[in-house]
Sequence to fold (115 residues):
Amino acid sequence: MKKFGLLLAGVIAAVVLLSTIGPMVGLLVSLVLLYFIFKQFLKAKSTGAKVGLGIIGAIVLVASIHNIPAIIGVAAAYVLYLVYKKWNENKHTKIKEESDPFVNFEKQWNELKNY
Fold:
């Protein structure tokens, strides 16, 4: 039942991730553009260049705000990662053997008697 729940969560997260790939790419591109515009704004010496870069930066900022649903896609990718980790988790249970030689001798003697 636990594997079914993980499978269901993984399928839902994958569908959400695939449906938000477009906004994720748009957000990435607009943030990269905004970064380069900001760097050029800091380097600009003239007031006209700063005003022009400020206007372009505001337009790109509005475009990046438009792609905010991409955050849902990032959250879906994280859920998909958690499902993958939980699915591949191994449960190792070690049986602790007693190191007392007399206990081991008794165990082996009983095995030989039953054979």
